[in-house]
Amino acid sequence: MGVDVYKIKWLLLSLSAALTGSAISFVGVIGFIDLIAPHVVRKIFGSSHRIVIPMSMLFGGSFMVICDLIARTIISPSELPVGAITAIIGAPFFAYVYFSRRKEA
């Protein structure tokens, strides 16, 4: 039909990367929780959206409060950035999700 699929694919990929980067720059590293919560809830409660959506909200909020509590108390007189705690917990989890899916395929 005259559409250069290769060019459009790279244009859309670049545009989505730029939009994601700009959203994270406004929100910060805390947006990382939004990526972790649904995966954890799906592993625990299954994939029904009736359960996943509300439990993701509850888990994400609870997880953020726990990470903030850890960040405030781990070095008592000063404070760690909350993003450091979420990255320490989230990076191994995403590695687990990534490599467990590779084994299934």
How would you sum up this structure in a few lines?
By secondary structure, the protein is mainly alpha-helical. The chain is built from four helices and no strands. It has helices at residues 5-27, 32-45, 49-73, 82-104.
What is the terminal separation in angstroms?
34 Å
Q: Could you give the count of β-strands?
A: 0
Biggest sheet details: none
- The average pLDDT score comes to 85
Content-based structural category? mainly alpha
Strand-residue proportion: under 5%
Radius of gyration: 18 Å
Could you estimate the helical fraction of the residues in percent? over 70%
Number of domains: 1
Strand/helix succession: HHHH
Low-confidence stretches: none
Count of runs of 4 or more consecutive helical residues: 4
User: What does the overall shape look like?
Assistant: extended
Structure notes:
There is one protein chain. The chain has four helices and no strands. With 105 residues, the protein is mainly α. The model has no long low-confidence stretch (mean pLDDT 85).
Search tags:
about 100 residues, mainly alpha, about 0% strand
Topology overview:
Layout: H1 5-27, H2 32-45, H3 49-73, H4 82-104
